[in-house]
Structure formats: C-alpha cells, structure tokens
Amino acid sequence: MAISVKLDRVLLDRGMSLTELSERVGVTIANLSILKTSKAKAIRFSTLEAICKELNCQPGDILFYGDGETAAE
Q1: Domain residue ranges of the chain, discontinuous segments joined by +
Q2: 1.50.40.10, 1.10.260.40, 2.60.120.560, 3.30.420.10: CATH of 2-61
C-alpha cells in the first residue's frame, strides 16, 4: 500500500494544464510533474495548500491511500 496522487485527474476536471498550475502556485513544472507521477517522497503543507486553493479542492481529492495502481473514484 502507498499514498498515490491523482493530480492529473483533478487538472483534467478543472480544465487546467500543469503549466498553468505551476505559474499560479509558484512551483516548477518539474516538481509538479514529480508529484503528479507519484514519485515525490514528500510535499510541504504550504505547497499542498496552494494547489488546493488554485484547484478549489480538498487534499483528499489529490492524494489517496491505496495500492498505487488505481485511484479510488
């Protein structure tokens, strides 16, 4: 079991690109890409807060605990 990220799904639902999110939250595209692919080892609460603010979502909309293969819908 692992914590996985479904940022790509939330971005798609909001019609926002990774580039646009990067500009809005002040995080590099490379770092957001690492997060999006579930390769990040950690995330600062301030970064998570900024992402949630821009995407108008909750942390649980982006992060989930599971087998790392499929996102719970």
Answers
A1: 2-61
A2: 1.10.260.40
For residue 7, which amino acid is it? L
Task: Give 33's contacts (C-beta < 8 A, 6+ positions apart).
Answer: 18
Burial 38-67 (b: 16+ CB within 10 A, else e): eeeeebeeebeebbbeebeeeeebbbbeee
| Res 72: pLDDT | 46
Q: Tell me the pLDDT tens digit for each residue of 49-64.
A: 999 999 999 999 999 9
Q: Record the pTM.
A: 0.84
Amino acid type, 64: F
Does pLDDT of 1 surpass 90?
no
